[in-house]
Amino acid sequence: MSLEVQPVWTSEPGSMANETALTRWPRIVLDIVKDVTETCDQLSAQDEKKEAQRICRELESLHEEITTDGKLREITLRQKVDNASLLPEDERLSDVEDWNAQLRQIQGCSWLAAPWLFTECYLYKRVQAIFVISDTQIWPSYDYFKRQKDSTFAKSSAAVEELAARFINMVKEKDAFTDQTHADAQRLLFTEMVEIALWGNATDLSMLGPLSVEDLQSLQGRDSIAKSRRNIVDDDLDDVWRFLSRHPRANIDIVLDNAGFEFFTDMLLATYLLEMKIASSIRIHVKDFPWFVSDVIPSDIPSLFSHLKSTEIFPHHRQEIDQLVTRMQNQLSSGAIHVQQHPFWTTGHTYHDMPSHAKDLFEDLKSRDLIITKGDLNYRKLTRDGLWPHTTRFEDAIGPMGRGSGINVMALRTNKADVVVGIETEAKVAELHKEAPNGAWTRNGRYAVISFNEGRLPN
């Protein structure tokens, strides 16, 4: 079932979209300038320093566009260098015409008066285009968010150490959970692992900015996760457990969100699903280039293990952490966990557009038993970032990926945007508005959803 819905616009007063456009986007661009400047100071090659200066100038120009509410302009494929030759088109900009076609559809829109989801994606594409046209060695593939991701993960030591120890102890006891009499224990353990991955999404750098050690500990600890259970406003986890019980050794995909601590919890979930034989294979989907500040890109995978092996960052529970790292790396090297990339994940399209704009990906996802989408952006794309009534059924809001689509999807998301669906009754919505006024429950990251749709009808 596909329904029409009005998307959230950046011009909506008091909306998360408006706040993001006014404050977060300018800050993000200036943070990139700061990062490039810091890297430039460490370089010796003059061509790379010169390119850094060009990049900073263009980023500052982009910042001015945003803060002065400039028109959204088309992305150019080529750029002159030193008033000389034109750079050849880069394959990483091969989708620019698609972006520009979408821009023409919303012609006349400006940064502060445009569809939020598309414009936010457009921001990160504009930034990538500034870097990728460089003909130097460092800048085309440079991760301008790496410092932020690394710094935040390093502050997560207490939660990482706690969860690693918990996981290894759980694996040692797993034989006790194989008998049917321990079905309840298996279900409770599954619930715990999924909720750990769910609340790992609370640390989203594109939304929260710099976080202190104390901030992270309040978000990430196991006790904190347990206390947050009542804040899951749409909870289909029992349905997911029943589904997986009917589909043992499932083939599961995880469409990743944030690097660092959240990625650690996602790898923890993947390893658990394989260890417990709930899954026979896991595919993790990463982004092609730096996206929404902290999204996982390919280089974040070895970076995760490099950090976990650091006795300086994670000095405690070393035996358990080392055992866990070995298990995770073995799962990757054996192919039990497989890394996937697809350009669709870094487009301005919602997942309602997937059947027409990425038919290969849509058909591929149909072949899997369960798709787990992580985080706020994936949820917004699933629901077309629409201003749905909060009581709209999840299966209706996700349109072509809903019931009868052939795709089984579970969304794990802490609420950090205006769109939330799947609330059972208007009375519950009213209760949430009273508990967290002015829509805070939809955007402060302290409430969450575990939404499930079985899109592949049983035989």
From TrEMBL:
<dbReference type="InterPro" id="IPR036075">
    <property type="entry name" value="ARMT-1-like_metal-bd_sf"/>
</dbReference>
<dbReference type="GO" id="GO:0006974">
    <property type="term" value="P:DNA damage response"/>
</dbReference>
<keyword id="KW-0479">Metal-binding</keyword>
<dbReference type="InterPro" id="IPR002791">
    <property type="entry name" value="ARMT1-like_metal-bd"/>
</dbReference>
<keyword id="KW-0378">Hydrolase</keyword>
<protein>
    <recommendedName>
        <fullName>Sugar phosphate phosphatase</fullName>
        <ecNumber>3.1.3.-</ecNumber>
    </recommendedName>
</protein>
<comment type="similarity">
    <text>Belongs to the damage-control phosphatase family. Sugar phosphate phosphatase III subfamily.</text>
</comment>
<dbReference type="GO" id="GO:0016791">
    <property type="term" value="F:phosphatase activity"/>
</dbReference>
<keyword id="KW-0464">Manganese</keyword>
<dbReference type="Pfam" id="PF01937">
    <property type="entry name" value="ARMT1-like_dom"/>
</dbReference>
<dbReference type="InterPro" id="IPR039763">
    <property type="entry name" value="ARMT1"/>
</dbReference>
<comment type="function">
    <text>Metal-dependent phosphatase that shows phosphatase activity against several substrates, including fructose-1-phosphate and fructose-6-phosphate. Its preference for fructose-1-phosphate, a strong glycating agent that causes DNA damage rather than a canonical yeast metabolite, suggests a damage-control function in hexose phosphate metabolism.</text>
</comment>
<dbReference type="GO" id="GO:0005634">
    <property type="term" value="C:nucleus"/>
</dbReference>
<dbReference type="GO" id="GO:0046872">
    <property type="term" value="F:metal ion binding"/>
</dbReference>
<feature type="domain" description="Damage-control phosphatase ARMT1-like metal-binding">
    <location>
        <begin position="21"/>
        <end position="429"/>
    </location>
</feature>
